[in-house]
Amino acid sequence: MKVLILFLVILSSAFCQAQNEPVNKNSSKEVKGLLKYINGLDDKILSGQHCYSHETNRFYDSVKNMTGKYPAIWGADFYWSNGEVDPGYKLVNEVIKKHKEGAIITLMWHVGKPSDDAPYGWKESVQSEISNKDWKDLVTPGTLLHKRWLHQVDQLAIHLKEIQKNKIPVLFRPYHEMNGVWFWWGDKKGEEGFAKLWKLLYQRLTDYHKINNLIWVWNANAPRDIPNDEAFEYKDFYPGHQYVDVLATDVYHYDYEQKDYEQLLKLAEGKPIALGEVGQLPNVIILEAQPKWSWFMVWSGWLKTANTDEGVKDIYKYSNVITRDEILFNE
After folding, report:
1. Which residues contact 247 (CB under 8 A, 6 or more apart)?
2. Catalytic residue among 177, 230, 262, 310
3. Is 331 part of any domain?
4. pLDDT tens for each residue of 118-174
5. What range does the domain containing 196 cover?
6. Which SUPFAM superfamilies does this chain map to (predicted)?
7. Which helix (H) or strand (E) element contains residue 14?
8. Which is the catalytic residue, given 192, 277, 288, 326?
9. Residue 84 is among the residues annotated as catalytic for this protein
10. Could you confirm whether 277 is annotated as catalytic?
11. Does a structural domain hold residue 146?
């Protein structure tokens, strides 16, 4: 019996250690340190605020003005918009600045269909449909559409390499809300669906471009059954533990369903989970019922349109919420 107990303890210890390790075996020490910190948060939660790429300080500063504290996480987007073919260089400069100020960085990628040219229209490209044939071509190496997709990824890689050069770890959450029906990469179930696109992206950035400063955040949307605005079960879009460091979900309209939280925890099997985007902040009662969220990030203007100043202050005063000045993370 003692031998069996010892074996189980060793097995449990090895499992926990494996969960602390990034999926990219060549990850930088900064990535390893940040992921270890996130894994060790226990019931604490990192605060976060998203900013539009053309307003990189507005809502981040708003939190400071409302609460006296800066969020621990600053988020932005590699969305090529506003008439610019590629404004990524400006974003990189802001990433470097925010990192020096002490923020943890999270970046996303609203990108248009590979069949389109940048700059990408929102409704016309990012939120447009893709045919089954085009999807098959997209995930099939050697096709014209796949080559156009490679060009998109390679352009993104230029900026990620610059961030890597500055030794900045990034919570990277591309192609988010993939279980929803509103983006061209969404609602593609099964091995030949979204899971394949995710693996191709991981391989291109990790194996080909040698980008080792990313923590890979698979970021879905809270499941819902609203007609023509559905978000389906997480498991049908998950690429597997070997390609994901953190599992996240987006929650809007105060849809903090306990069953969805439990479903994501189950799928994660010990990996960290997070609230990649929220509209209304979770209140203290929700955070106590759902204590395993590693961070939350409020989406830009929703900070003010969906929350009261007092509500934001209350959450930032909650003892389990970590602000920028309270980050205990050594690179």
Report:
1. 217, 218, 220, 234, 238, 264, 267, 268, 271, 272, 273, 274
2. 177
3. no
4. 888 999 999 999 999 999 999 999 999 999 999 999 999 999 999 999 999 999 999
5. 2-326
6. (Trans)glycosidases (SSF51445)
7. helix 2-20
8. 277
9. no
10. yes
11. yes
